Amino acid sequence: MIIASGELNWSQINPDIFGSMFQAVIDPEERHNLGQHYTSVTNIMKVIEPLFLIDYKADFTKAVGKKSGKKQALNRLLNRIAKVKIFDPACGSGNFLIIAYKELRRLEMEVFAELQTIEGTLPLSGVKVRQFYGIEIADFACETAILALWLAEHQMNLESKKVLGQAPVSLPLKEGANVICGNATRVDWEGVCPKDEGGEIYVLGNPPYLGARMQGGEHKDDMSSVFSGAKNYKKLDYIAAWFMKGAEYIKSFNAKCAFVSTNSICQGEQVSLLWPHIYSKDLEVGFAHQSFKWSNNAQGNAGVTCIVVGLRNKSTAPIGLYVGSIVKTVLGIGPYLTCGGRTIVASRNKSLSLPQNMVAGNKACDGGNLFLSESDKDYLLTAYPNCSKFIRKLTGGREFLDGLTRWCLWILDCDLDEAEAIPFIKDRIELVRQTRLSSRDFAAHKMALTAHKFREQNMGATNVLFVPQISSERREYIPIGFFDPLTVVPAPHLVVYDPEPWVFGVVSSRTHMTWVRATCGMLETRIRYSSALCYNTFPVPDLTEAQKQTINMHVFEVLEEREKHPEKTMAQLYDPDKMPDGLREAHHQLDLAVDRLYRNKPFASDEERLEHLFKLYEVMIAKEKLG
Predict the structure, then answer these.
(1) Same domain, 486 and 439
(2) Cα(503)–Cα(515) distance, rounded to whole angstroms?
(3) Distance from C-alpha of 244 to C-alpha of 232, rounded to nearest angstrom
(4) Is 574 found in the same domain as 426?
């Protein structure tokens, strides 16, 4: 096989394929433990272009456009390129370094081509592989990265000879890339890539992700080392260690860093745990790519939802926010990767401005034994017609969205003897008792004494406002429901007991959805609604009775429009491609009414809407602190 592979033409091998080969041969479990997710060339460019390449190309364009001093400007750019350092502290098989090297060489060739028209003779390339630095925990990957950079150097020398007629000689191999084998969370980054006076450094890469629950003992020790003295860091993703070390490394130096990451570090609770540390170093977000799904050519393609976050020391240079293929120049990017300031929304157990708190539904802790299928329910009602008092409708996310029906046993303490007189129910209660006694949770042992009921038995007096915990990102609105007070909502779905109708209207509005998309956590790209981060933090101004009645009117119109389509499930009603026109218009009118609660002038965009909400949130939090 080795001889056969040597007969192939390797001269144009793409680093994309080289990285795929590495990922294909490494042990799958080892790859998982290392958190390695190989990055495609397309996604690498999302990092290096806004991090430094756009700036370099802008310098080139300015130099070419000069009427005088063109040669000097081009030589300054060559000198800058020859001194830059590129550092990937999780370099894997070296793809970020390879692509950065190739792009710098190609830009250098463009500069040479311009100089050739001026003076005819050219110097040899000043871009050396020794300017590229990396840390990688797997020794085989280290060797792959060094070899791949030599290969890239040879390819670019051939390309240079083809374009310019001359190139450096690749062989014999001389200095290689400065890639070391080590744990980047423990290694001194400055010892690997020294900071030279007058130089510039770009730190970049795709570090391992690993959510808090996926981390092993070594990962937890690494996090403890990086976040020594910090609070609540144990809830952070493993990649947060690279952001923390990257922020410390670039602080007060002519350096920037940018990493590919899962979107979790810019959502939900992790924002309040990580970003204060970054801001304490007087840094800002210089550019960011909002959430996108990626793919690559590697075996076992990592289907993850990613962001790119670039950090820099405070600067007057433009700030770019990438939304898909569109880049917006903004005044600032907040920790939620939206336009705006540095406001961080902290989770709360009590609502900031709405009259009732939102809580999780009733948790069963029963091993599924208190739940009933349709056939279970039918059997009980047929065999024991008087047992209907022990059966309640149970509605969670799937039932509400897809029109399904489920049931559960709901037995009050005063009815226990009567319920246990029914053998089917008595057997179910015994199964719940055994499930709780066999649990490792000591609290579950106590609940075995009340095995006839859910852990919680919370019910509304008049109605229940229901919010599914997970909702598709495609929907313009999260479908929200009003249930009768006898309906049981299981955890983790969320409820507000006995709210006035206008609360439904506020939570169903575009204004609230804008807040949710910015502050809540996500499951991949799906919305994961949080009572502590979305509902309880949502700022609503003080409302008059007249304003509440106006919102009530629009709520009833939305509910009426839903009822006009009994043949459709809630998921179908809120499919953006299939939403009935009447329902869409009713929601639009509700949106306008809710917007008027905040100000009379309509919002021009969701960005403007969100900026207004963050300001109101800050005012309310400050007022709350004053008592």
Answers:
(1) no
(2) 15
(3) 14
(4) no
Q: CA 53 to CA 287: how far, in whole Å?
A: 13
Residue 443: domain span: 364-394+406-456
Cβ proximity of 113 and 164 under 8 Å: yes
Cα–chain center distance at 523 = 8
Tell me, yes or no, whether 92 lies in a domain: yes
Cα radius of gyration rounded to whole Å, the chain: 30
Task: Summarize pLDDT for 417-449 with one digit per residue, the tens.
Answer: 999 999 999 999 999 999 999 988 888 899 999
Whole-number Å distance between alpha carbons of 131 and 244:
24
Dump the DSSP string for 201-241.
Answer: EEEEE------GGG--HHHHHHHHHHTTT-SSGGGS-TTHH
**pTM higher than 0.90, yes or no?**
no
Q: How many residues does the chain have?
A: 627
For the chain, residues with pLDDT lower than 70 are 15-39, 120-121, 170-172, 294-303, 521-525
User: Quick count: other Cβ atoms within 10 Å of Cβ 318?
Assistant: 14
Are residues 21 and 83 located together in one domain of the fold?
A: yes
For Cα atoms 528, 534, 540, give the angle at the middle one, nearest 5 degrees. 150
Residue 274 belongs to some domain of the structure: no
What does the block give as tokens for 212?
């808090």
Q: Count of domains in the chain?
A: 3
Residues facing residue 312 across a β-bridge: 256, 284
Q: Which long-range contacts (CB under 8 A, 24 or more apart) does 312-318 make?
A: 312/250, 312/256, 312/283, 312/284, 312/285, 312/286, 313/250, 313/251, 313/252, 313/253, 313/255, 313/256, 313/282, 313/283, 313/284, 314/282, 314/283, 314/284, 315/284, 315/286, 317/286
353 and 384 inside one domain: no
276 located within any domain: no
Is the bond preceding 501 in cis, omega lying within 30 degrees of 0? no
| Shared domain check, 497 and 549 | yes
Q: Are the C-beta atoms of residues 429 and 451 closer than 8 Å to each other?
A: yes
Among 223, 257, 291, residue at a domain's last position: 257
Within a domain: 267:
no
At 3-14, the pLDDT tens digits run 998 888 877 777
> How many CB atoms lie under 10 A from the CB of residue 35?
20
